[in-house]
Amino acid sequence: MGSLLSRLGLECGGKAVKEEERHLRANDRELNLSYKYSDNAIKTSKYNIFTFLPLNLFEQFQRLANAYFLFLLCLQSIPEVSSLPWYTTVVPLVLVLSMTMAKDGSDDMNRHRCDKQVNNRQVEVLVEGELQSEKWMDVQVGDIVKLENNQFVTADLLLLSSSEPLNLVYIETAELDGETNLKVKQALTVTGKLEDSVEKLANFNGEVHCEPPNNRLDKFTGTLTLKGETYSLDNERILLRGCTLRNTQWCFGLVVFGGPDTKLMQNCGRTTFKRTSIDRLMNVLVLSIFGFLMIMCLFLAIGNGIWEYQEGSKFAAFLPKGVNAPFSAFLTFWSYVIILNTVVPISLYVSVEIIRLGNSFYINWDRKMYYPKNDTPAEARTTTLNEELGQIKYIFSDKTGTLTQNVMTFNKCSINGKAYGELLDFSGQRVEINEKTEKVDFSWNNLADPKFCFHDNSLVEVVRDGNPEVQAFFRLLALCHTVMPEEKKEGELYYQAQSPDEGALVTAARNFGFVFRSRTPESITVVEMGELVTYELLAVLDFNNVRKRMSVIVRSPEGKLTLYCKGADTIIFERLNPSCSNLTEVTTLHLNEFAGEGLRTLALAYKDIDPEYMEDWKLRHHVANTAMDEREEKLDALYEEIEKGLLLLGSTAVEDKLQDGVPQTIEQLSKADIKIWVLTGDKQETAENIGYSCNMLREEMNEVFIVSANTAEEVRKELQTARRKMTPDGTEEPTVKKSRSGLFCLQKTETVADEPVNGEYAMVINGHSLAFALEKDMEIELLRTACMCQTVICCRVTPLQKAQVVELVKKYKQAVTLAIGDGANDVSMIKAAHIGVGISGQEGMQAVLSSDYSFAQFRYLQRLLLVHGRWSYLRMCKFLRYFFYKNFTFTFVHFWYGFFCGFSAQTVFDEWFITLFNLVYTALPVLSLSLFDQDVNDWWSFQYPQLYTPGQLNQYFSKRAFVYTVLHSGYSSLVLFFIPWAAMYDTVRDDGKEIVDYQSFALLAQTCLLIAVSIQLGLDTHYWTAMNQFFLWGSLSVYFAVIFTMYSNGMFLTLTSSFPFIGTARNSLNQPNVWLTMLLTTVLCVLPVVAYRFLRILLWPTINDKVRYKVRQDKVLPATPRRVQARRTSTRRSGYAFSHAQGYGDLVTSGKFLRRTPKSRPALFSQTDSPLAQTQPQFYRTISEREEPPLSP
Description:
alpha+beta
């Protein structure tokens, strides 16, 4: 089954009155119906058989272009105004409306089909003491339903009981969040006693008070009142609609939310579409074109009034009602609005969508962005942003899982002030560890993981000797976590870890003799040096992004109460007992050494707890845990209270290796003048070290600024000092340019100008300093300093801060931004940026589901931007320039003709030519240009990343380029009108008969126009394909076939009024002077363009011109030189970020065991990854550029 979210469509119902709190009682339909809660029926369709036509037309005519052409059609129905037949507007309008209507109708039929299928599913419902099969649509809030294995969850249910031990159920949430691993939910013990007894369930009358309907999939707050007792309800007790029951024979649930109130349906609200800068520019240009159209019509109307006043009296005898010059001018104004409407062609919008769709398919079909290891192709999840991929100026990237593999290995540790993991020779010098280095023998441990690799035997010796501190260290790693064990065979343990960090640490404890074996909601069983020990689990103090730590409180078999805590070193050190000061200093030195090697570090601590204090704390914990208001804040305060006075045990260090090709990709993007900012939760030293590994930070940089102050004033001072070092002669006040943009210039914008910098700089800022820097009075200072740097690394940042940094750059730089990440903590950043890219990695699918584009490896980003993005931008700009050129040229010929027809609004072309010009004669050639053209191929795009920079500067299409296009059209229209007019003036045929008539002139003018714009298209085409040739020559052939057909005797006799040009084609096109006129007009139209382009390439060549010249010189691609990547030696520090997610503490206390279903999927392609997408270094040659002239045809 496909994604249920997508099948349910985009629109969801809602109630007019906002619900503050939900109250319901089990098995009491009368009470629950009195609250008028929504039933379980869903309706995602927009239309029915009666409303489809009027409602769809109403929606389509809300678009400005469609409404404009409807207005023209109304004008054409007025005989005094219309000088064109109705079909010139009706045919294109009906075609566009019909295409959109067919698409909307097809989509809505699918929604109807899906609604019907879902609403008519059957489920067993407890009604009047009996289980009855009911349709989903008939289920009500407060009903008790029975689900069986592999069934979809009917509604949002409170789990009551299940067939599994401890009342567990296993659900698959792939339809909600894209994750295929099974989640575990557990019923309350008090409701679990109901089991599957229909009698007990029928007598169950518990009352639920909970939050109103909302779209938070990861949160639920409520209470269950039963027999005077109140029990806390959270997300771990709720089964959400859209999930599937797995590996569970049966379960019973109480309906809490139904139909449109379910969290699934609350999440399928209207999607906010991102718009490209070209879209916004087009809106402004179209509005300007409307104004320009009105000015032309007004000018021609005034000309008509003057002409009628001066010359019209001579023709008054032939008119039935005489001449009224002002009224004639008024009618002429609207007549010209109809005639000149082609300046805003309706086919423009349809063509743009086709081009975007085609370029999206190119991304989906690109084998060089396919990752065979995971069978993951690239995916364009939106079709509206392709050309913006060619204009990216800032990239905001996560680190873990995006730049790195997010596959952790336990490398080193520090225990009680001694470091383990290094190998020393007899002289005390470090020995480099490689694949040939001897590994530690764990054969003494029958439960050891055979894949685990460690090299320092001294750590094994102290563990086996019974060192209490070392054993306490590994005991903490075996107890303080949220890992779920799975033992398929005796002794074969498999760990399901929520984060790779936890899996690596628990596996390390396992190999060193402290094997996490099993768990229940109340206990954890560990094999300690061969002895089975069961600890009573009293509480889990869960991790979140604010706490950055997690703790467990356990009771040993001897009755000793202990709190074990692990987390970020800065957080743990703040909560240590003062007696640990000396150990803290030594451990800090070890942390710095580990971090300097790019390892992710974690501090471990513990404390013994007094039993009496624990009893009091548990009572207060229960009160906070059942609170309906501010539950999380109250729990955090209790956690903060008990996590004090800790005793330090040591620290761990795990390695997270870089993904393949990351340094080369970042190097390529930097050469394309794209600035890369890394926003990570890692420790400052870790982020800095990874920056060097990725080539973002380089030893040859002038300076790397570190901003790590603890007060707002110190942060401001450090930012100002860095800025003054980069620009000693710069101004203290920023240059802020205020302007207006958008339709009618209603949107105010402020742009902080870029400041010149001599040299290369980088900045590293931590989350504490960033919080001050993002305040309103300091954000400009942060932006100025950061934007002067080639690389910016923000460490220890929260998900909210990631989004704030992106919004800051968007607000003041007016540049196109891209955010890339792989985890749930990157979603806010991905949504905030102009373009969001998700990497399908180790942290689930949340980032992918929120993104605009997705793929499996960071290295594919260079192909997405430097190839697909650049080509899409180039094609769209060429399309728009050419489209406006041909339509303005077409329209201006009508304008000039007005001076020769008494401003009477007579058309210069045949009416059928006007109808078919944009729909048939020029549609396919320009589409082929926009889908297939490329200035250079992908190989050369990689070799010269500077080809990307024109897109960042909007050089290919802007307001200036539009003005030049209009001027070019004006010149071409003058040639296309006056050369045929002069050639036909007083001209006779070979037989002495006159050829000077309106119809012959119209045929000559329209033929010259079509040939000229076709040749212009050929000049704009850089990459000729068979499709380009076929569409271009085919369109010209169709034109001549159509005119000979429509101007024939047969068509005239069939519909005389519609085909008046009888015999014009055969009478005109057999004259040599007609063909010579076509040749002359074509040469005069093309000659200035060719001359200008020749001089521009000769005198002011652009980067594209130079590379294309190089391509012509190098017919055979040169072999890529091999370069050995020099190893960087640096003593810079590095550190750790706790890769974890909130909510898994509650999961383990409720006994939820993660299970992963086997996944088998055939490979999409047999071909392996391409060399370009692999880690081979790519080089470019520096090409100097002189100042370029303004863009012109």
